[in-house]
Amino acid sequence: MSPVSPLFEEHTHEPASEISAPQAAASLTAEDPPAKPPRPLSPQQQAELTLAEAFPTVEPGVIKAILIASRGDIEPAFNALLGMLYH
Q1: What is the pLDDT of residues 23-73, one digit of tens each?
Q2: How far apart are the first and last CA of the chain?
Q3: If residue 62 lies in a helix (H) or strand (E), which one and from where to where?
Q4: 22, 50, 81, 84: which has the highest count of C-beta atoms within 10 A?
Q5: How far apart are CA 42 and CA 30, in angstroms?
């Protein structure tokens, strides 16, 4: 076996089991910034999500196209989707 290089002898690390939970938590909170809150949905995105929940079998692209044709107004878009599915 070859001798260990002096460079490696200088850099010894503590095993993870020897670090206490408070030390680990303190190192995480000191280094990691808090998570950013999610960005609020735009009215267009909210309307798309609402219609997708109401019509889960309709493809998202179709919902988006109908919403655009309805000028972003959810009520006529909802009626158009109802008419498309049940007439």
Answers
A1: 555 555 567 889 999 899 899 999 999 999 999 999 999 999 999 999 999
A2: 82
A3: helix 60-69
A4: 81
A5: 34
